[in-house]
Amino acid sequence: MRVVWELVGVGVCAFLAAFGTWFLVPLGEGSGCVVAELKPGWICIEDVGSLGEAICWVDARPRREWERNGVEGSVLLTDDAEEDFEGLMAEAFERFTECDAVVVYCSGTCESSEAVAEKVRELGLFAEGQVRVLEGGFRATFLR
Known about the structure:
This protein is of the alpha/beta class. It contains 5 helices and 5 strands, in the order H-E-E-H-E-H-E-H-E-H. A 5-stranded parallel beta sheet has the order 1-5-4-2-3.
């Protein structure tokens, strides 16, 4: 009988957690990103699809974070002092030739994503506005 009550308790806790999440982040509200408030070169997660079909996701976080939970198919391109940026750029270059656009993200609001995006722009592979920094960083990728 104890097992049954424990299962009921777990079920109730799961339901309350799901309901609480739904209540705090209602469906359809998106990221809360406001286009008019974005810095030039930034983009809201809801608008990434407007850049084209083949998006290259670039993770500007440290390698250990990218390996743990980077966006599937993303490339690591970080200005972390422990990494060889030029080597990472060479690895990413071939992927970039297959993409319509690049979206760079890091941990929320970090400066690495802007620096990395600027270096990708300097390659000259993409049209104006096709290399963007993701508002909200890694957390926003869960909304895609």
